[in-house]
Specification:
With 363 residues, the protein is an alpha/beta fold. The chain is 45% helix and 15% strand. The protein has helices at residues 13-27, 42-58, 60-73, 78-96, 106-115, 155-160, 185-191, 213-222, 238-251, 266-271, 282-290, 305-314, 327-333, 336-344, 351-361; strands at residues 2-7, 31-36, 100-103, 124-128, 145-148, 168-169, 201-206, 228-232, 256-259, 275-278, 295-298, 318-321. It has a six-stranded parallel β-sheet with strand order 2-1-3-4-5-6, sandwiched between helices. Strands 9-8-7-10-11-12 form a six-stranded parallel β-sheet, sandwiched between helices. It is globular and about 65 Å long.
């Protein structure tokens, strides 16, 4: 079997899901290839990430109105961008001749829907919903089209949009294999490149890949608590890391702050933490769920992170926060044990294996 996985680099979640599925399928001996469909297209990437993604952080209310409109109409900018890459991507698909195409971003599914009649070999389409929200592209289905959802609660919306029940699979969304493996805090700490104080409440702060506003304001607000230990991860956002470094040198906060920037194993850092604080990226939420870590998430964010926050807050797995809150008091008063027990109910059982088992039945 030949399987092509289409992804888009916007944050890390879509690529991470693609990598997880490729590893699982490759382990079964299948010919698997990952394509980042907009890679090398500077203008599209600029519109998608520097304009769309960044503006979503700065003006979430406006961004959410746009998303809600696209959900009603089914029209997104990806159809236009896909026209620009049509010739190139069709050539790659027809050269590889996949039996199954897995899309971890809606742009891939839309490309298949619009241009499948130009494939030299018919292919089944499998699309991952990587957030806790039904994406705009799922307002209609097409032949050979299947959708993987994180939880069965999203099934009804898809049925209302014309999907047949056998085309909807509630397998969950895969994260890295390490998140399903048992790890002791002692072993995780031994692999970290920094020392942790076992007597302090450990907070993992994530979500700084684009922008710095809320995350940096939050860090400043909770940095005065001496019983807090903060692992601050800004990924590849060197501007944010430098900003935090300057703050630490100037203010010398009472909390212990470990300013990591990029970290080799977010899993080890999560295992060693008592809670995760930041924005509700789909991957971050899924990883925290697998490691049973309570989430403290910003409410004033753009779709789909707004929906991710709503989903876990309504299930008492997370606390909605705002930089204007008395965050130190809010964290101290939170019932972390109760949050953790509720998170256990959302854990998934090896989604990558379930999806791979299903993909095998399609050929």
């Amino acid at each position: 079997m030949k399987c092509l996985i289409l992804t888009v680099t916007i944050g890390n979640g879509h690529n991470a899901v693609a990598k997880c599925m490729a590893e699982e399928l490759n382990s079964r001996g299948y010919d698997t290839k990952i394509l980042d469909i907009y890679k090398g297209h500077k203008f599209i990437n600029w519109e998608l990430t520097d304009v769309g993604f960044s503006l979503g952080f700065m003006f979430p209310k406006i961004a959410n109105k746009i998303v809600l409109r696209t959900k009603r109409t089914g029209k997104t900018p990806f159809e236009s961008w896909n026209k620009q890459i049509k010739k190139e991507l069709l050539a790659q698909i027809n050269e590889f001749k996949p039996d199954v195409i897995i899309s971890t971003h809606l742009a891939g599914r839309l490309f298949i829907k619009d241009y499948q009649e130009l494939f030299t070999k018919p292919a089944k389409s499998v699309f991952f919903v990587t957030d806790f929200d039904v994406t705009p592209s799922l307002n209609k289905t097409f032949n050979n089209d299947y959708v993987i959802i994180p939880y069965a609660s999203f099934r009804q919306e898809l049925l209302n949009n014309g999907f047949q029940t056998d085309k909807i699979k509630s397998f969950g969304i895969p994260v890295a294999k390490s998140f399903y493996e048992p790890i002791t805090v002692k072993d995780a700490r031994s692999r970290l490149e920094f020392e942790l104080d076992s007597k302090k409440l450990t907070i993992l702060m994530t979500g700084g890949m684009k922008g710095s506003g809320k995350l940096f304001k939050t860090l400043k607000k909770i940095s005065s608590e001496p019983n807090f230990q903060i692992i601050f991860v800004s990924s590849k956002n060197t501007k944010l890391k430098n900003k935090v470094d300057k703050f630490l040198a100037r203010k010398k906060p009472q909390a212990k702050i470990i300013n990591c920037g990029f970290i080799k194993s977010i899993d080890d850092a999560m295992v060693c933490s008592d809670l995760v604080l930041g924005k509700a990226g789909g991957l971050t939420c899924l990883e925290a769920i697998e490691r049973e870590k309570p989430l403290f998430l910003y409410g004033d964010v753009c779709y789909p992170e707004y929906q991710n926050t709503e989903f876990v807050v309504k299930r008492n797995c997370a606390v909605r926060v705002d930089p204007k809150d008395d965050l130190i008091e809010k964290i101290k008063k939170a019932d972390l044990v109760s949050l953790k027990n509720n998170i256990k109910k959302l854990k998934m059982d090896q989604p990558a294996k379930k999806v791979a088992d299903f993909v095998e039945t399609l050929v």
